[in-house]
């Protein structure tokens, strides 16, 4: 499963160089990675919301891509020595870094 996720993320990264980070194809690729790997694990994550929005493929792909990114970020955080208490003591530093990274996307 980890190999599938890694391969899919590398493919999405290559696509992002051509299409841009937030392109529909990239989100669909990341959503498909989540759907074929992580969503098969138990317990499943249940998303609540209006059916009219959750039935749209673009919205579903965005939600799945966000879920994948959250799980991936948690894994990377743990691999780099992250712990729960570091969120408390390094919150300002994390916020500054997030703002910087968001400014790079715009």
Can you walk me through this structure?
This protein has helices at residues 2-19, 24-36, 51-54, 57-79, 84-89, 91-105. The protein is globular and about 40 Å long. It is mainly alpha-helical and 106 residues long. The protein starts with a helix and ends with a helix. The protein has one domain (2-105): YcfC-like, CATH 1.10.3890.
Strand content: under 5%
- In helices, the fraction of residues equals over 70%
* Broad structural category: mainly alpha
* CATH topology assignment: YcfC-like
Q: Alpha-carbon distance between the termini? A: 32 Å
Total helices: the number is 6
Largest sheet: none
Number of strands: 0
List SSEs in N-to-C order.
HHHHHH
Shape verdict: globular
Could you name the ranges where pLDDT drops below 50 across 5 or more consecutive residues?
none
Tell me the name of the CATH homologous superfamily.
HflD-like
Rg over alpha carbons: 15 Å
CATH class: Mainly Alpha
How many separate domains make up the residues?
A: 1
Keywords for this entry:
mainly alpha; 6 helices; globular
List the helices and strands and how they pair.
Layout: H1 2-19, H2 24-36, H3 51-54, H4 57-79, H5 84-89, H6 91-105
In short:
The chain has one domain (2-105): YcfC-like (Orthogonal Bundle). It has 6 helices and no strands.
